[in-house]
Predict the structure of ATP-binding cassette domain-containing protein.
Amino acid sequence: MSIVLEAVQLTKTYQQYTALRELSISINAGEIFCLLGQNGAGKTTTINLFLGFLAASSGKALIKGVEVTPDNAATKNMIAYIPEVVQLYGNLSGIENLDFFSRLAGFKYSTEELATFLNKAGLQTEAHNKRLGAYSKGMRQKVGIAIALSKNADVIFMDEPTSGLDPKATAEFTAICKELAAEGKTIFMATHDIFNAVNMGSRIGIMKQGSLVHVVNTGGITANELQELYLETI
Ligand SMILES: Nc1ncnc2c1ncn2[C@@H]1O[C@H](COP(=O)(O)OP(=O)(O)OP(=O)(O)O)[C@@H](O)[C@H]1O
């Protein structure tokens, strides 16, 4: 197993307030790691530190052994980020958005190649040329996944990807994530969705007030057991 993501005593403080306290964890290629925790527990802070959007106060975040810093392009090229609401151009179609954002990342693909990324992300062919303005949240997310694939990102970070998705869209999203992980992509997501975390995650972390309190393997736990542990913890 190769370690793709590593946090070593990773800490973020704001004056007196500690948003993330000495997080140490290693995540392997092909894992789906789900981070649970109440609002304000430090999940987004953790993601933002890996993305290089924030500078660590102490400790470090590494991607494939390279330390993340806000100005290190090397780590940014290995990752993609899918926020809760994927920001795309409403007047462009799905395929035009993908073309635009993949060019921005330095890639130039044929129409056929762009369509292949969209199909792999689960977006039906008939939707490729429709305006983004008419897309559901789940469809926007699929374009976000296609952008991540077009960038050839090894790691995909996601913030609350299933919030606001209907059960069918959630199931589709879960299936796509599992497929990507089976191909070796690493997925790190912050979520409030306990059922889905058990369903798709390889491991689940539970955070409380900036600290990672539990890391659970999903193999041996039911959603009810995880919920009990979560409620006891937070
Ligand atoms: N710029 C900042 N200045 C001061 N405190 C901040 C700043 N950014 C975040 N925080 C605090 O850090 C803590 C952790 O926030 P974070 O966004 O990581 O939580 P979260 O677990 O992602 O919550 P949610 O589920 O609501 O997204 C919160 O208490 C938040 O108010």
